[in-house]
Amino acid sequence: MSTPILQVSGLSFAYPERELFSDLSLNIPSGVTLVQGGDGRGKTTLLQLLAGRMQAQAGRLELKGIDLHTEGEAYRRQIFCMELRSEAYDQMNVPEYFASVHAAFPGFDASRLPALIEGLSLTPHVEKKLFMLSTGSKRKVWLAAAFAAGATLNLLDDPFAGLDQASINFVVKTLNAAALNPQQAWVIALYEPPQGVPLAQTLDLGD
Ligand SMILES: Nc1ncnc2c1ncn2[C@@H]1O[C@H](COP(=O)(O)OP(=O)(O)OP(=O)(O)O)[C@@H](O)[C@H]1O
């Protein structure tokens, strides 16, 4: 088996009033990994921990040999993470947002944007600022950015929420094509397994 993209060992994390993970070890290979779990099981928190945006109480995370603890900046630079709760990009219009992602990811492939915008029915929205978009449209913008970014590790929290069926089909098709790239890993957090997406593995956090 090839070396995993991300190696996690001994990860422990608790909020003051609730322990979520204790001594969790896992490998994330290329392809699609599903983090499955019911309400409040810790899907979002786990993605934030993998992204290096929240700090665990214990554990080691190594992304293609880069250790989060000792090389945090280099580690985080390889990760595209949907920041749906962030307001940091709200004042940007869609092309400005894509330009900001392009600046952050050297492997960003801008030639893919027209097809992604069309496939996700974003054309009527491209001149809008992000705060003007519905949650579903904003999610589509993040997804388009993820597919163009070329990041090593891609963390997609609830990628289908609020999407119309045509866009869901498009995301499934695009994700399945991206999953064939042995240099990239895709982690998706959902309540239940997605239809039509072959999974490299499932991490079940319970109902
Ligand atoms: N900042 C926080 N401080 C304290 N507790 C938190 C915080 N964020 C989340 N929690 C709690 O931790 C648990 C896991 O939350 P998290 O959002 O990671 O779960 P989730 O599986 O993504 O849930 P959902 O599907 O409902 O979004 C929940 O019980 C939540 O209430």
What layout of secondary structure does this protein have?
Blueprint (H helix, E strand, L loop, with lengths): L5 E10 L2 E11 L2 E6 L6 H8 L7 E6 L2 E2 L4 H6 L1 E3 L12 H11 L8 H7 L15 H15 L3 E5 L7 H14 L6 E6 L10 E4 L3
Adenosine-5'-triphosphate (ATP) binds next to strand 2 and helix 1.
Could you please describe the fold and organization of this structure?
Helices cover 29% and strands 26% of the residues. The strands form 2 sheets. It has a 5-stranded parallel sheet, with helices on both faces. A 4-stranded antiparallel sheet has the order 2-1-4-5. The chain has one domain: 3-Layer(aba) Sandwich (Rossmann fold). It is globular. The chain starts with 5 loop residues before the first strand and ends with a strand. The mean pLDDT is 95. It has helices at 43-50, 72-77, 94-104, 113-119, 135-149, 165-178; strands spanning 6-15, 18-28, 31-36, 58-63, 66-67, 79-81, 153-157, 185-190, 201-204. The protein is α/β, with parallel strands linked by helices and 207 residues long. Helix 3 packs parallel to helix 5 (135-149).
